[in-house]
Specification:
Blueprint (H helix, E strand, L loop, with lengths): L5 E3 L10 E5 L4 E8 L2 E14 L5 E11 L4 E5 L8 E3 L5 E6 L5 E4 L4 E9 L4 E6 L6 E4 L10 H4 L3 E3 L2 E2 L1 E7 L4 E4 L2 E4 L2
Parallel strand pairs: 1-15
Antiparallel strand pairs: 2-11, 3-10, 3-12, 4-8, 4-9, 4-11, 4-15, 5-6, 5-7, 5-10, 11-14, 12-13, 16-17
């Protein structure tokens, strides 16, 4: 498969970006992506990263709702936190998590925004990016890994123009579901 980021219908096998930036201790990064209309399940989430030589980097990946008022991540989607992932290769390669219980998302008419986020437990990882990709990425600090920032903590952030190599592989659900402020209810 080709490279890709955001909500995509395949697991990419090549890196998305052209350079890397350091994900420092206790830093949380998020990028907003539009999920198309429909009921979807996320089967895999991943990011392209490289590690500092001789060290193992650690991070979590997750999906957040969109805080429309503050234009930042809102609430962690149920079941989307990957738990701790580790990486110790200096070449930019994919680190991914396949969900055994798949997070369910709904894209409303016209699509719905969600945030794909990565959270670093040390300073040994560098994530893939396109430095002038034009997509705003948010970073918060002052958190304590591995506890994700709350909606209110995300309000304090720094803006940049990186387009990152993070993705969520999604497919149609067999049973309808709807996200309501981070929780699911059955609709079909």
């Amino acid at each position: 498969m080709p490279s890709g980021n955001g909500f995509i219908t395949y697991s990419p096998d090549t890196r998305y970006g052209s350079n890397t930036v350091n994900g420092t201790l206790n830093s949380s990064w998020g990028q907003k992506f539009l999920l198309v209309e429909g009921n979807w399940e996320v089967t895999e989430i991943g990011i392209y990263v490289a590690s500092t030589a001789g060290y193992t980097g650690i991070l979590h990946l997750g999906i957040f709702t969109n805080d429309i008022v503050n234009n930042c991540p809102g609430i962690l989607v149920d079941g989307s936190d990957t738990g701790e992932l580790s990486h110790d290769t200096t070449t930019v390669t994919k680190i991914n998590h396949s969900y055994s219980v798949k997070p369910l998302l709904t894209g409303e008419v016209g699509g719905t925004y969600f945030w794909l986020c990565h959270y670093y437990g040390n300073s040994y990882l560098y994530f893939d990016r396109i430095a002038t990709g034009g997509t705003t990425l948010y970073r918060t600090s002052g958190n304590t890994y591995p506890t994700w920032p709350t909606d209110t903590q995300w309000h304090t952030h720094y803006d940049s123009v990186y387009d990152t190599g993070i993705y969520a592989f999604y497919q149609p659900t067999s049973v309808g579901s709807k996200i309501v402020t981070g929780s699911m209810i059955q609709i079909g």
